[in-house]
């Protein structure tokens, strides 16, 4: 399902946070939202999720997000926040099962099929051995996979991931991003994620959206967006952009010589 | 499977505590007599209990309503506490500590002083309970944006002191009502069948609503943004649970007075035993809260016999040290 963002403004507490943002996440592709701190990346994701009031138009599969009832919205969009709240004594299986919430009526309870779906997702993410473990006893990498499992259990065609690699070491960053990419290809998911590591974003995303000061300043393929000029201008960093694997750019920090 | 065992265990404990509550007192009743006398009252069952008419009177007019009221009040306070804890995502939330009980206490005193007690008591208690919680929540929320776990409780304590002060003032204005109000405040489940009948409908409605929200409270426990992203209207769920918990508090307070700590001790112990899912915590708290208060009442009327200790004193004796333990545990999680 394609996500179209057209001329979106968001104000938080009377302060403009997003101004006239336009972007497209095409079906089955990975759009990475990059930009300096405070650029409005997370806000954009929350607006797409329908968690923040916005003006302008955000559509998913052609339907405006704001017109969708909460449960219908949760069936097309799954969202994993940057620092998810994990109830310490909830088990991995119970947590994954929360992803079925949009399919359960208000007074209802999970069906056997919901339980089975959650179990299958855990199996797919190699989490079956951890199913009965409370969330407080997971490592950082396991937590991130469990949050992903919860989002996948939602079986939504669009996955919104806010900084999925925060606080992970290099190996676990790679593991999580590879996993997301595999799921995207296998299930034809549309992925929209914020990523602070530019090289990682360039390696995994099909398209990049560079945001700065609440506006979208560049969009396109990694090669088009990650130019020395744009990175210097919006991040205030001195960098050299080299060629990496598969022609995707690699960003190196350059120390001022002098 | 394991869940079933835990529930059966809790039901057995509750039944055992209630039976002990029926047997023990100024006049001890034999177990066999109590069981047979109760069985005799069941439809299609006829049994000879061997109890004297006086003993039968004690059992059915004093002990049974007292034990039922104790179980009801304890269950309500515990399930209301668990409900508040889910709404505020705060393991220290409790009808007493949140100002709900004090709010109910104030409005009930107002009603007793102004119109004498009667049918208006439960409604007044409900308004007072809801008002107390909202006041504590508002205060805690403005004090620190978002509010930590301890802030809400501090605000609740402030609200409780304030409302109790007004209540004391009212009480002193009407000295002739003093004794009645005072006895009620300290907590007492000896109200007889009249109180049982008054409390029961509210108890059933409030407990049913709370138990049916276990799944949604589990969803809320991952945070409002994620709950919304999962298609749940977090605000509406909160409001419904808040109203139901306040109704439960009101029913408990109008029948039993101000009894502290049940709502925080029982759900916490339940979590330790059976995990944190509200689908388990809510019904188990209902059962365990009943058992806890029946036992507390048993202690209250036997340790200083023939004098009776207010039941709130017994719960505070157990509850306060427990509270400190929970506070330490939550601090560890937060830092």
Short description, anyone?
The complex is a heterodimer of chains A (258) and B (335). With 258 residues, chain A is an alpha/beta fold.
Folded structure, characterized:
Chain A has 258 residues and is α/β, with parallel strands linked by helices. Chain A has one domain (3-253): P-loop containing nucleotide triphosphate hydrolases (Rossmann fold, 3-Layer(aba) Sandwich). Helix content of chain A is 33%, strand content 27%. Chain A contains nine helices and twelve strands. Chain A has helices spanning 41-49, 70-76, 92-97, 112-124, 140-153, 170-187, 198-204, 222-225, 228-235, and strands at residues 3-12, 15-25, 30-34, 55-60, 63-64, 77-80, 158-162, 190-194, 207-212, 215-220, 239-243, 249-253. In chain A, the strands form three sheets. Chain A has a six-stranded mixed β-sheet, sandwiched between helices. In chain A, helix 4 packs across helix 5 and helix 5 (140-153) runs parallel beside helix 6 (170-187). The mean pLDDT of chain A is 93. Chain B has 335 residues and is an all-alpha fold. Chain B has one domain (73-334): ABC transporter involved in vitamin B12 uptake, BtuC, CATH 1.10.3470.10. Chain B contains 14 helices and no strands. Chain B is globular. At the A-B interface, helix 2 and strand 6 of A face helix 9 and helix 10 of B.
